[in-house]
Amino acid sequence: MAEDRCPGVLRLHEAADGGLARVRLPGGRIDARGLAAVARAAERLGNGIVELTSRAGLQIRGLGLGLGLGEDLDALAALLTDGDLLPSPAHERVRNLLAPPLAGADTHALVQALDEGLCADPALSALPGRFCFAVDDGSGALAPLRADVELVPDEDGRMRLWLDGRATTSLAPPARAAGLALDAARAFLEHSAGEWRVRDLGAQRLASIVSIERPAPAAGLRRLGVLAAGAVAVLPPLARLDPDQLHALAALDPDLRLSPWKTMTLVDRPHPERTLAELLALGLIADAHSGWVGLSACAGLGACARARVDVRAAATVRARQRGPGAPIEHHTACERRCGEPPDVQVSVVPEPVLAR
Fold first, then answer.
1. Count of CB atoms within 10 A of residue 156's CB?
2. Rounded to whole angstroms, how far apart are CA atoms 248 and 79?
3. Where are the beta strands (DSSP E) in the chain?
């Protein structure tokens, strides 16, 4: 296997527009303090571009263009530590923990227990940066993502362990479920020979960890606007935010949940219609029939050295052309197809360059 170069906060990806830092947010949750820290990092150290990721996190672009990369790293770590976003430097690239944005307190308590257990085990810092945990709330919303290790409520109230979208025979009560998931991650490290994901182990080696029962059901969740119980969901066009938007979001003092489909959900709002109006004023999308819904693109020209096409400009044109119910569509600027969602229906890729 090739070297795992998945970026984090302390190890950046060198993009065409500068260093890129990826901030993990367990359960996709971030509060006002965290939002303000990311905003300050983007405006002081980066080029002002913050992107939502397909792992319900954030990434800050254009680092190293001002102070110099080494100084930027120290300043970035300090800012994010102040925002309570870097609890364990050794584990910062492996805190990939997903949860549905509308999940309740019990689900997020389990996410927190899983995150704390992960960060408490030095051995688990060796997990690949692409390895992903998930905690479902019974809705099946995360099923299409096929997390490496997932906990799903069972009919008897216990949590069942799933691996790579497959149910196993392993069950535990909620109080011990985090340990079950962490044991599966340790088993992955024991059996791995450099693989990045559980699916890379192969069926026989995967079966030697646990028994496989049945495939996961397909499900999805891309609802926008005012939802149940005072929740409000919006979509940033092409998953990008700027520092002004982040500061404005922080001023709302939100319990904000990001999702793998790059929506943002504010929960428990006492006046959701007022919150919706404030979010729309920031240029965020809440119309489920908008052409932006289900439309995504990679970083494109100016941000990636491999890019051959200005896919973000092309996607902006497409947003005006797409109608209600348009298929999930992703534009990429080269054959690597970075950022393509797992349930993509239309994939737009430039023609290959022919050798002369």
1. 8
2. 18
3. 13-15, 18-23, 29-30, 50-52, 58-63, 97-98, 133-135, 149-153, 159-163, 166-172, 212-215, 225-226, 232-234, 240-241, 256-258, 264-266, 295-297, 329-331, 346-348
Distances 30 to 160, 218, 224, 265, 276 between C-alpha atoms, Å: 27, 27, 19, 11, 18
Cα dist from 263 to 47, 273, 279, whole Å: 22, 18, 12
Contact 185, 149 (CB under 8 A): yes
- Whole-angstrom distance, CA of residue 7 vs CA of residue 23: 9
Residues 6+ apart with CB under 8 A from 267: 101, 102, 229, 230, 231, 255, 257
Nearest to 17 by CA among 240, 267, 324: 240
In whole angstroms, give the CA distance from residue 88 to residue 95.
Answer: 9
pTM above 0.85, yes or no: yes
> Considering only CA atoms, which of 347, 268, 259 is closest in space to residue 25?
259
Contact (CB, 8 A) for 32 and 253? yes
| Sign of torsion over alpha carbons 252, 116, 42, 102 | negative
How does pLDDT run along the chain (356 residues), one tens digit per residue? 556 778 999 989 888 888 999 999 999 999 999 999 999 999 999 999 999 999 999 999 999 865 455 667 889 999 999 999 999 999 999 999 999 999 999 999 999 999 999 999 999 999 999 999 999 998 888 877 889 999 999 988 999 999 988 888 889 999 999 999 999 999 999 888 888 889 888 655 665 555 555 444 444 457 899 998 899 999 999 999 999 999 999 999 999 999 999 999 999 999 999 999 999 999 999 999 999 999 999 888 888 888 888 999 999 999 999 988 899 999 998 988 888 887 888 998 988 755 44
Which SS3 state, helix, strand or coil, does residue 8 take? coil
Cβ atoms of residues 12 and 19 within 8 Å: yes
Helix (H), strand (E) at residue 277: helix 272-281
Residue whose structure tokens are 């196993």: 168
Give the closest residue to 124 by CA, choosing from 148, 90, 151: 90
Distance CA(80)–CA(40), nearest Å, equals: 9
